[in-house]
Write a structure and sequence with these properties.
alpha+beta; Beta-Lactamase; 3 domains; 6-stranded antiparallel sheet; elongated
């Protein structure tokens, strides 16, 4: 604790009484550990216990997101503080970042005297932090995974005795989070194995379908060629329809195989090398919308395309890009009420040499909790039987293209996913190896 910060005198409490209070806090959280199987419920219980035993006003758990180098408010308790759920701060700013990097707790008896306190976080929710204890959440050995913060003691100021109790709570909370993560890793590893087996079985099941399509195509053409009036409107329509249906069957079979494989790779954390070729965004979006048009019509939802025709071609893996747009549109269909719309809109950013494609729906929007879990293996699915992997797959596709993605959502209004894709993606590892100058040669 910095020498300039002097906490107010705490009420005298005998060591046995303090020890009893610490043991009671540990007992209650340990009891919750044995009863709660859901880590979110467990952390909420632990936060409520922390507030009760130290008599504080608000508490939060910020977990690290290594991909974005941010600390995200995943669990928050407190009337105004609840609005912070899902908010992220850079992990190199604020008192939380100091504790996260050092792995040591910090007692702020008067945050107004500490310049590292992020006042803008308070301002965003109309709150004033007066005193605060920040503790690292970390395994027994290893780096912190986040921080626990407890704010504003109702009587007096937070002090060393409060820090002692909260240290016990943070240790138990860290253990619970790590246990839940290990469980998730095991679960997803098993899901990945099963998906691999399912993908193999799906491939076997689709093989006779594809073979039948290959056999049926020439037979249909031969039949239509044998008709007396080959140039009639009816015959021409039958020819066009047969080619369209057979083409759709082959394309759909390939898309199913791609989707299952992508899900398995997503769960396993694997990614095969993308195959970059010239590609038009409008064509990929049109294919995805065409595949989902029947489903959208059943839900009385309009699928729209805007400003895509003017986008320049980009180098992309068309099959993966299709999966990204398919997932975004398919997920949106279940969120949009009848009469609503899903619009895919394009924009060209010449300075950055990239295109921006937005998938905008008029659905029910997402809560901060759902937004905070997006693009991760812990994504929350609100669809019956949903895996929650759809948006994680989308992010993996965008990252493979050297792009960026974010989401804007407001409950009761709708959601917009924004994808930025460069015209020229980063060179693949194989391309870099081929283009690397030989030893002794300078370019």
């Amino acid at each position: 604790m910095p020498a300039r910060i002097r906490p107010q005198a705490e009420p005298r409490r005998s060591r046995p009484a303090q020890l009893a209070k610490e043991l009671e806090a540990a007992r209650r959280i340990s009891q919750a550990l044995s009863r709660q199987t859901d880590v979110d419920s467990l952390i909420s219980h632990a936060l409520r216990t922390a507030l009760e035993v130290v008599g504080a006003d608000a508490a939060s758990v910020l977990l690290a997101d290594p991909a974005s180098k941010q600390l995200v408010f995943r669990h928050v308790i407190g009337q105004k503080a609840k609005r912070l759920r899902g908010t992220a701060i850079p992990w190199d700013q604020g008192i939380a970042s100091v504790v996260f990097k050092s792995g040591k707790p910090h007692l702020s008896a008067d945050v107004s005297k500490d310049r590292r306190h992020l006042t803008r976080v308070d301002a965003s929710i109309g709150y004033q932090t007066k005193d605060m204890i920040t503790l690292p959440l970390k395994p027994w050995e290893g780096k912190p995974i986040g921080v626990l913060q407890v704010l504003n003691k109702r009587r007096g100021r937070l002090g060393r005795k409060d820090l002692s109790i909260l240290t016990i709570i943070s240790a138990l909370m860290s253990a619970a989070i790590m246990q839940a993560r290990l469980y998730e890793e095991v679960k997803f590893a098993e899901v990945g194995r099963l998906l691999g087996d399912i993908g193999h079985d799906v491939g076997n099941l689709l093989t006779p379908v594809l073979c039948s399509v290959d056999l049926l195509g020439p037979q249909l053409e031969k039949f239509l060629d044998g008709l007396k009036d080959q140039e009639s409107a009816e015959t021409m329509q039958m020819r066009r329809l047969s080619r369209e249906v057979l083409g759709l069957l082959k394309t759909s079979a390939r898309r199913i195989q791609d989707q299952v494989k992508q899900m398995a790779d997503c769960v396993k954390g694997l990614s095969t090398e993308p195959q970059f070729l010239p590609c038009r965004i409008e064509s990929v979006v049109e294919q995805a919308q065409h595949t989902l048009s029947l489903l959208a019509n059943e839900h009385h939802i309009e699928l729209r395309r805007e400003q895509l025709a003017g986008l320049p071609p980009i180098l992309a893996d068309e099959r993966r890009l299709y999966l990204a747009f398919y997932n975004l549109i398919n997920n949106a269909i279940s969120e949009v009420p009848p009469g609503g719309s899903i619009t895919v809109r394009g924009a060209w950013e010449p300075k950055g040499r990239r295109v921006m494609v937005s998938v905008i729906d008029t659905g029910r929007g997402m809560s901060p909790d759902v937004q905070a879990s997006l693009f991760s293996s812990r994504a929350i699915s609100r669809k019956a039987g949903g895996t929650g992997l759809g948006t994680k797959i989308v992010k993996d596709v965008v990252v493979a293209h050297g792009g960026q993605i974010n989401v804007e959502s407001q409950e009761g209004v709708g959601t917009a996913f924004h994808l930025w894709l460069p015209v020229q993606p980063p060179a693949s590892s194989s391309e870099r190896k081929r283009s690397k100058p030989a030893a002794g040669v300078r370019g």
